[in-house]
Design brief:
It is a single chain. Helices cover 46% and strands 13% of the residues. The chain has a 7-stranded mixed beta sheet with strand order 4-10-9-8-7-5-6, sandwiched between helices. The protein has a 4-stranded mixed beta sheet with strand order 1-2-3-15. It is globular, with a radius of gyration of 25 Å. With 549 residues, it is α/β, with parallel strands linked by helices. The relative contact order is 0.14. The protein has 20 helices and 16 strands. Helix 13 links the parallel strand 8 and strand 9 (357-361). It has helices at 6-29, 38-47, 55-59, 66-83, 88-99, 101-108, 113-122, 159-173, 187-198, 209-224, 264-272, 310-327, 346-351, 377-380, 402-415, 418-424, 427-444, 472-478, 499-518, 530-548, and strands spanning 129-133, 136-139, 144-147, 202-206, 228-232, 256-259, 276-281, 330-334, 357-361, 371-375, 383-384, 387-391, 449-454, 457-462, 481-482, 491-492. The structure holds pyridoxal-5'-phosphate (PLP). Pyridoxal-5'-phosphate (PLP) binds at residues 152, 208-210, 213, 236-238, 282, 334, 336-337, 361, 371. Residues 152, 208-210, 213, 236-238, 282, 334, 336-337, 361, 371 line the site of pyridoxal-5'-phosphate.
Length: 549
């Protein structure tokens, strides 16, 4: 017989130990980086003080000697003349920035903040364009650039294709016009095609990728009766609170677990807990698991790493699939970015794994704004026949807008063409070969930059420690290559780049790297390491904080 006093203690232990064990499992499954700890990241972000470099510091943040600083200055001046304020595009963008918050934000975060003021004074954002044609865009001054921005991923088949989708689509629904709530009959084909492409039972239309993700998570919660969603460190799923728990979101979502991707510890958490409704996967993360979408604004050193491993990621998704099936957790593939780009059937086809719910967006709108959710009947149903008041509400005034449905119809019709279907089979071969050729050329010239890709989605990695890698975006711009505001972190090609177009882009990338190198930005003290760069920045921040206090 146990002494009486021990019994309550044992009872408490019997309850507490499994709880503590599950809590420990959860902690272990979080990525050790700030990416895995969004709350801490948010708090730390608030502490980071603004400071910037003086003119002299700007050019020798890595302790470069005077002759290198002189070369950098001269190169900077030359670039400032090329990209300077004289152009009509720059002037118009400058005027817009006064009253347009989006333009202010993207301009501010093009480069690490310490360099921001100097860069912005000399390199205007020049975000105004007049025309797109083939694989190029033309600005207000008539300057033509190859477009590597890909319009955030919308542009898979080339801008002219989307113009045609919109024109032809609008022509077909013109008589109905913007009538909402009822549908134009061509919606039927869209639903049929999307069901067939996704291999899923039902479809719903939304106004953006963010909304499609919101609906997927809401349905998962409704059907499982569970509260939490699991997302992976670094993954972007739109800007809705629950899926963006870290820096950038003033709220702290309480129903989100941010775990390590491609890690057994995460599978243990999924097996061990009973509060998880769904797991959200953004397959672009196969290029840089557990790391945020790369942006030059965070390019403090050269530790950015990316390298897609299709087989390993497929194996990981198979494991996830199996655990989710066992535990009744909804597996959601967020194909808003990679859908219709890496394969016709998106990541389900590319990685050979089926999801319960799949979100699409961007390109599938045929050039107009869209979010799509496809899912199994069991997850898509928004009401319960047995409990009429228990519904999962989702609406949206502009959902299934006739013009968007019509442009989408043109887009999806294009995919039914045998030649288009066949072209999908070659995507990896074509883009991997192009990537490899460019990397070979860069290696031969001993340039400290390489590209990594998932199909036609690229990111640039830097091979030697440097504080100035972000300068490359301006050299690329001067070569007539248009990037998005995240700079060399994300280059997105449309699939109408011919071999000749690509050769031209490649040679401009090489030329940009050559010039940047010649101007001394990649000068390197052999003792400089990424770690040293980071500790120097940490010291600068502490100094700035002390000054502020
Ligand atoms: C994977 C993914 N999900 C969701 C979104 C959000 O889509 P939208 O910008 O249309 O709201 C994005 C946008 O980049 C995305 O890449």
């Amino acid at each position: 017989m146990l002494p009486e006093a021990v019994v309550p203690a044992l009872a408490v232990a019997a309850v507490a130990i499994p709880v503590l064990y599950r809590r420990l499992q959860l902690s272990l499954a979080k990525s050790p980086s700030l990416q895995g700890h969004p709350r801490i990241a948010r708090r730390l972000a608030r502490l980071v003080p603004f400071y910037d470099y003086t003119d002299a510091e700007f050019f020798r943040a890595d302790g470069a000697p005077a002759d290198v600083v002189d070369r950098r200055r001269a190169g900077f001046q030359r670039l400032a003349c090329t990209l300077g304020h004289a152009s009509a595009s720059a002037a118009a963008t400058g005027r817009l920035e006064q009253g347009f918050s989006d333009a202010q934000f993207t301009k501010a975060y093009r480069v690490p903040f310490q360099f921001r003021r100097h860069v912005n004074e000399h390199f205007p954002a020049a975000s105004m364009l007049a025309e797109s044609r083939g694989v190029t865009v033309t600005d207000l001054d008539g300057c033509v650039s190859y477009d590597l921005s890909g319009s955030y991923g919308v542009n898979v088949f080339g801008y002219d294709f989307y113009k045609d989708c919109i024109d032809a689509g609008i022509e077909r629904v013109r008589h109905l016009g913007p009538v909402l709530g009822a549908y134009h009959p061509l919606i039927q084909e869209n639903v049929d095609w999307l069901r067939s492409i996704s291999g899923l039972d039902e479809v719903s239309f939304h106004m953006s990728g963010t909304e499609a993700v919101m609906q997927a998570v809401r349905l998962a919660r409704y059907h499982t009766g569970r509260s939490h969603l699991v997302r992976f460190a670094g993954a972007y799923h739109g800007w809705w609170d629950d899926v963006q728990p870290g820096v950038g979101n003033p709220q702290v979502p309480c129903h989100t677990y941010t775990l390590r991707e491609m890690d057994e510890r995460t599978l243990r958490v999924l097996r061990g807990r009973s509060d998880i409704a769904c797991v959200l996967v953004n397959p672009i993360q196969s290029l840089h698991p557990n790391r945020a979408a790369p942006a030059d604004g965070t390019l403090l050193d050269s530790s950015r790493k990316a390298n897609a491993d299709r087989d390993r990621y497929a194996a990981w998704l198979r494991e996830l699939r199996s655990v989710c099936s066992d535990k009744g957790i909804a597996l959601i593939f967020d194909d808003v970015f990679v859908g219709f780009r890496i394969a016709l059937g998106g990541s389900q086809e590319y990685f050979g794994v089926r999801a319960d719910l799949v979100t699409y967006g961007k390109t599938v709108g045929g050039g107009l704004p869209i979010g799509v959710l496809c899912g199994t009947r069991a997850f898509m149903r928004r009401f319960d026949d047995r409990r009429p008041s228990d519904i999962c509400f989702a609406r949206g005034t502009f959902n299934a807008h006739p013009y968007v449905m019509a442009a989408m119809n043109e887009f999806l019709r294009h995919l039914t063409r045998p030649a288009v279907k066949a072209a999908y089979a070659d995507i990896d071969t074509v883009w991997n070969a192009r990537t490899a050729r460019l990397n070979e050329a860069l290696a031969t010239e001993q340039q400290p930059v390489r590209v990594a890709n998932l199909g036609s989605i690229w990111t640039m990695n830097y091979t030697t420690p440097s504080r100035y890698n972000w300068m490359l975006q301006f050299y690329l711009r001067a070569e007539g290559l248009r990037l998005s505001w995240v700079g060399t972190g994300r280059l997105i090609f449309s699939h109408n780049f011919s071999d000749d177009d690509f050769r031209a882009v490649s040679s401009r990338i090489q030329s940009a790297a050559r010039r940047m190198n010649a101007d001394g930005w990649w000068w390197r003290d052999p003792a400089l390491t990424n770690r040293r760069i980071r500790s120097r920045i940490a010291r600068e921040m502490v100094g700035a904080l002390t000054r502020v206090r």
